[in-house]
Amino acid sequence: MNVKEFIKQVFLNEYKRLIYDYKFHYISFSLIALGIEFLGACLDEHDFSTTRHSGKRFRNAITELFPLQYQRFNNKGNPYDLCNNLRNVFAHQFRPGPRIGLTHRDESIKYGTRHLQIQGNQLILVAEDLYEDFENACKEIIRRIDNKLIKHPKVYGGYLSVPQ
User: Domain-by-domain residue ranges, the chain?
Assistant: First the structure.
């Protein structure tokens, strides 16, 4: 399976089903955060297995692939920084940082919250909104692969071996 097939199968198919069919919203935040880092890895000039680039890859994906409203929450100096409060804390503790509030659309409607809104001392993330922005970022990576706009050969060869 190559990178494009992996993105389509895992991020655009399985993640979507996880959120919309199964309604596993909490788990989706962790998986999307890891997926954002993966998209950032597609953009850089290092092999996928290169270590110590997680934060840089996550931030680069947010900068290059996500809507402008995310940029406000994409730097270390911001107390609502997505890399530190979503990606890092979830990767190590399987929970968000204290400045992140997680919800889903039905709950957000019920309580009058919005995605990327600061309410009290928390940045609100709505699972379906985050996924839709992630989905668009995935489609942009696929477009760049199709148009040979990514130069590193890692995105064009095999990525994952699937036993047959």
Answer: 3-94+130-155
